[in-house]
């Protein structure tokens, strides 16, 4: 089915999120939609999917104008969408999620679960997925959850499929698999709209590329276009795509993690006997597929986990078993993985968020009083220094864009005297321009002599930032390898295979010598 | 498959199988030990002699079970020993890294109550069916309220207004039944009244995005004020509006003759039978039907429901109204099912207790029902104990159900997770 | 101050401008108990005198004095406060407004020239109720239950217990009383004065003990007991309290063996009439068996079902109580 | 590199300002009160016997019906006004303004208890346990108040502190159990209300505990004169020194929430406990402290009840429903200290006026509950009020946002720094 969007305009109050956008996706074509954060991509797709009503413009399917009052209409017309944030009910099983909204029932209105299971199995078989229809969605790895989203769309026989940033949470392997699936779907005649920030993927899979900026189409490009071309088209200026950094000059050992085990609420050992050392002025990147214990590892360092065994020495002092406040006071800076949930108080102002971790004493508290003038000054400085774009320091952070929110977290964490900096997924879901900025700040922190741990599921980021790379699998560290380790080796390690190099630590030491 | 799977395959479906660290919690054995010691104190320090009689059938029962006459002291000692043994078993279980099974706790609970009743009922007789029937009666409105609460919260709207729905149902059903002379019309009007209160909740929380807890609390005040005002201004001046009509009990042929169970469950009035139906319907409906699937989806992840074409706010509106209708039936129990006349503020906080049952029952219709029953049992136990002349002051007996609830919530339930989107309005652009 | 209110109110001709008023306690005027009966008395007196009246409810105890103040602002001539809880507010107001007359029900602690206490020796009447109950009972078990454990409630229960005991002593029987133990002062209470499921279950537990005569003390809770009796279908009976409930509640009339009357309405009426006629006095109005301020109501429907000698026995006992040969004792009784 | 914001022209700005005033929160609140009074007026008229009688022959003489409606409602509302604000029939000036002080007297416990509930709201908890906390506070304050013979300067503060401690303890139980076991505070507070009620009932009828000597009534002895809150403006006015405590408490809460580090943590945990924990705050500590302070404030209400409002001995109904009223007060005040203060005054006026209305023409006091709850409902839903009065929505930031504005000083400081920034950006 051919999809055509003509002159779509969507305004949110004064903001024009989509400004007369035209877009066509032919059957059997993957049409990539590129754009910075906030460019208006998701808005456009939500209009197409009936979630928003366009202020102007039309949607045509096979040249027939459509009117979608809601997603139900769009789905019935043959449009399926794999959302940027998964639209799955976490506590439901796969089959329940797939049948939701178009349930078959047997006598007495009872749900036809066997039918739904059969359908899930059938689609899984067709595309080579391995999805258990009775698994509870929230217990599945994100990669599988995404497959459930795809099965959901396919179970309704979608002829036009929209993928909104589907790769943001996937491993390289999963990304490759997804792209294979997309090709397969395309070959079966589906029209696909593929939204992403990642230029490599676009060039690999897209048949056509449309770039939008500030709600307008700014150009089309061929898959052969260079990264730099695409990036400057997106951002409207040239962007540095690689991280400029000097080789590390590691100092003495700063952090020693020894035999660390973390046990979660249901008794699973989520971090299993992890040991490593970290030197001053060095970035250790922790790579791995999401859900292999990286989150728990960083949380254990910060004192957020309840059941932890083993030792964590920071500059020779034990910080394991201490309260979060003690750990922060010991000089640990922490950028949590989920910034809106764990990093920021959405209703608080930028200024208030900037003092969140120092609510007990100086510099912003004296004898129980808040020092608001000092705070305002500090906040104004940080807003300038970190280029946090907002209406002012009293803007609630909930109203900031993701990239700017992340800058608030960074500004806060980097403005203390740090002896260790831990950043989990520091650039997840933020745009190229902001990524560049965040990476620069991380490297600058390293260059000040602070030891840095970066957790990332993005291999690009890992290889760009790291001085050494630790790969985690099932709670354990598979190996610690140098930064120049080839991607495919890292990929294998992420799948649990120990690296070829028999003794990677030796290798590392040679490098240091 | 070969074309699709890349060379470096991470089978994505493979959940990293982690080793499991077993945990043990000594909470249960310690609690059991405390109660065992309590029992021990009763049989030693507060020793009472004589005989305790448990009457298992009342005089009108079809099958008359014999009375159980137990020597107070002897039974106390034996039961205390059994309790101690169970405590040791539980401790052993935990020592072996195993969980104490729920049934063991249940057995312990029952035996402890028997021991306590034996002690308290020394030289007295306790009518066991009476104890249980009374518990059911006290629980009935709570169960209706809790079912309404479960539905409403499952669809994503916190229902603090159960009290208002019960009171509204009680008032309207009494008046309508008096005016029309028909109990059945009264019953239906209770449904409507509860639903109307709920609709206000729904409109304010869904359409106007007012905090749901706020609307709930305020609605309770509003309904209390309205019914009390009308009661004082209208009903007391025209007794014809508050005639006190009641449903009489219907014996279910056959079933009502089963010893103990029969009189308890099957010699009730229609409101109670409706409650049985409601429990089953809500349970099956929530977990086995399209209605329930959609309802739960809306309460867990409204965006997801929206993206598959479910009208989130309409679903919420109608189900919250339905929840109110069910709670309204509970209100009718106060009047048509139990007392007849409407009295000012006659629900006396039952709605809040029902809310507690919803949370205590972890948003599950069956568990919430059990929680409500526990509460009813504790309340009625208080009555029975004060009749047999327990030496405890009446206020402490009256406190019992509330203390039991605190202990249960603090000790057994702890942190529980409600429907993810409950309390959050769904805002669509 | 009285302002323009006619100070000539104590003359009969001006009686149509006489304004008697009443403040309820937190039970409110629909309590099927002393507040309601007090109001009934006030209404009767007012209509007899051809005057209007004002009555205000107190939602809680903190508004007693402001309610009295409101009535003072309404220029009431007589303010009747119902219940011992209003005693202190009444005392203060009476002191500050010596020109206004006050009367207070169920309290005798105020000693002021413009305050007339109205109290009742309810235990005397309840004694008769207990005796009648014991005599009527076929199962040999009678019961009583209360709203809250407060003296105005337990005084009924104490008298009732004494009556049962007296019956046992006289007839060498062993009728058992459940729901109240006079010695330990412990018993069955519903926790409040609302008719409702809780009250019904409390009554039911008494029925479960085979009690076939029950005296619920506490406003409308008798209605719940009545429902429990109807549900059990075993023909148990009730003894009403405060007024002759056979007459005030026709719906449940057939259940009432008799009632222990506490003549609040006639007492209030008498006090209002006295005051309106200019005969206000500080001398307490004390309702006793002797002055028929308390008493046992007729047996109505049960006239033919009671033992034929019972009325005579009750008369003897009544005489005995009046002349002091039979002692009725209650810790809750106001010091005589 | 700060964002370039199009500045609205002056004309446009003044128009916006005008529109925002008309549909501002204050205006909405006024309209909400009007609406609530209108609806309650309809109720009063509809249940009025004269109206009923005259409507029987409505078509014959409709004027009578309207006359009856008008008189029933106008008498009701003028007596509310007379009872709550100014008694224009009074002969003396003092008499005329004395209703104002009745209002303050009724408002006093509503405000402090409302502050307590608001505080718990801000820390993300819902304290329905006001009843229990007032009872605990009243029992403690009352006990100190009648048990010791001390000079006023010591006795009175001691009794007030006892009330605070009593309420704080009852709140602490909730915070502590929640922090230790994760139990839901809504259940705990509801249950503890009953526990407090029965406990106090027991103590009140047990000699040697709270019962007055020489009586069998479940009533405490009178508060000793040395522990009674003295009248603030002479004895002809109802208001006592407790009102100063209430004002102080409001200042304290305002300081606590906006200017103190503890309050900062309360708000942070209230808005996002996860982020607060990650930022090193003790979430459990906040739960405990917030409930202790919340209970302490509610406890003050208990103390003013027994040391000021009812000094002649109390019974177990001394909470007078204030614990629940406090919830609506806190809601109407949007959980901000001075908002709660204002809401408390309004509800105090309604209560004072309500009793006057009851005395004047027998409208049951329960109508006040109806008025109160309608006000809160309408205030919480500005769009509804706007629809009814056909007002236009304000520009940005309308909606039912309950987020607190940042403290004013911070806003001012921010304004300075941001102008500095724009200047820089322009260069
Ligand atoms: N509720 C809101 N009220 C006012 N402005 C808002 C609101 N939500 C978002 N904005 C504004 O819209 C802009 C973009 O926000 P959005 O969160 O969509 O960005 P984004 O596309 O996710 O960007 P990022 O790449 O930084 O994540 C920001 O300037 C933000 O201030
Ligand atoms: N519901 C909304 N209300 C107001 N503004 C919105 C809303 N949704 C999106 N916007 C704004 O519209 C603009 C486009 O947002 P959109 O989500 O389409 O961006 P995007 O290109 O998908 O960005 P991202 O890459 O972060 O997903 C942003 O400025 C955003 O803040
Ligand atoms: Mg997007
Ligand atoms: Mg974004």
TrEMBL record, chain A:
Keyword check for Membrane: yes
Chain intervals with Basic and acidic residues compositional bias: 504-513
Compartments reported by the entry: Cell membrane
Pfam families in the cross-refs: ABC_tran
Organism annotation: Frondihabitans australicus
UniProt region (Disordered), positions on chain: 494-513
SUPFAM superfamilies: P-loop containing nucleoside triphosphate hydrolases
Gene Ontology CC: plasma membrane
UniProt domain ABC transporter: residue ranges: 3-239, 255-499
PROSITE patterns membership: ABC_TRANSPORTER_1 (PS00211), ABC_TRANSPORTER_2 (PS50893)
Keywords: ATP-binding, Cell membrane, Membrane, Nucleotide-binding, Repeat, Translocase, Transport
Record's protein name: Nucleoside ABC transporter ATP-binding protein
Gene3D superfamilies in the record: P-loop containing nucleotide triphosphate hydrolases
Chief localization: membrane
Membrane topology value: Peripheral membrane protein
Gene Ontology MF, one: ATP hydrolysis activity
From TrEMBL, chain B:
Record-linked InterPro entries: ABC_transp_permease (IPR001851)
Signal peptide annotation: none
Localisation per UniProt entry: Cell membrane
Residue spans crossing the bilayer: 28-48, 68-90, 102-120, 126-150, 157-177, 183-206, 213-232, 270-287, 317-334, 346-363, 370-390, 396-414
Keywords: Cell membrane, Membrane, Transmembrane, Transmembrane helix
GO cellular component terms listed in the entry, alphabetical order: plasma membrane
GO molecular function terms attached to this record: transmembrane transporter activity
Keyword presence, Mitochondrion: no
Highest taxon, organism lineage: Bacteria
Topology of the protein relative to the lipid bilayer: Multi-pass membrane protein
One Pfam family in the UniProt entry: BPD_transp_2
Stated name of the protein: Nucleoside ABC transporter membrane protein
From TrEMBL, chain D:
Pfam families: BPD_transp_2
Signal sequence segment: none
PANTHER family reported in the protein's UniProt record: ABC TRANSPORTER, PERMEASE PROTEIN (PTHR47089), GUANOSINE ABC TRANSPORTER PERMEASE PROTEIN NUPP (PTHR47089:SF1)
Biased segments, Polar residues type: 416-427
Keyword Oxidoreductase among UniProt keywords: no
Species annotation: Frondihabitans australicus
Keyword Transmembrane helix among record annotations: yes
Cellular localization per UniProt: Cell membrane
Keywords tagged on the record: Cell membrane, Membrane, Transmembrane, Transmembrane helix
Domain of life: Bacteria
Membrane-topology descriptor: Multi-pass membrane protein
Membrane-spanning residues: 21-46, 103-121, 133-152, 158-177, 186-204, 237-257, 286-307, 313-332, 339-357, 363-385
Molecular function terms, GO-annotated: transmembrane transporter activity
Record GO cellular component, one term: plasma membrane
Protein name per the record: Nucleoside ABC transporter membrane protein
Chief location bin: membrane
Region entry Disordered, spans: 396-427
